[in-house]
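Intended use. Records like the one below are meant for learning the mapping from a protein sequence to its folded structure. Do not use them to infer anything beyond what is encoded.
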Amino acid sequence: METFLNLFSGIATILTGAVAIIIYFRQKSDAKVQAARVLLTEIRIAEDRIDQIRDKIMNNSTTDLPSVFPTENWKKYAHLFISDFDQDELKSLNGFYDYGELIEDFAKRNNNYFWITTEERARVTVQEIAKLISESLEDLSPDKNIISKRDLFSARMDAHNQIYAPTKTLAGIKDYLPKVPKITTSSCGVKLKKIAKMD
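Structure written out for the chain above:
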């Protein structure tokens, strides 16, 4: 009887350990599937936004460039996929994220310059209008003079109202855009879709 109890407790311990191992690997597999889905979504969004930036640069519409990555999940989940990709595929994925981050940095700088120049233009405009008003107050009919100078000033400001963006930021974006590999249609994308069970 004692032998039976020892055998039963040994088998129960082994079964408990086996169930715990099965649960662990299933959770790890589920986490990998979820991570692959998150990465695929992020990569699709980033590719779309890179295309938007490319179109805006080609059309000389450089205001309000979109952010490339809503989140940066590759750094968070890369360790889960090291064994799934070969060296070239890992290099491609790392390149996608590295170049995408560089483009995003240049795009943020470009967007910031727009607001900086807008604020500076507003400051200069207020200063010039104040100067015109103070000069006009010395005239016999200041109201007419102020209005005519204001209208002239506004017309000239509108004629020279150009959006400023340093060429360095736009050149940086133009340099890195062709270097960004397309991931969703590459072997990396195929493998991610397979891991995410989306094929």
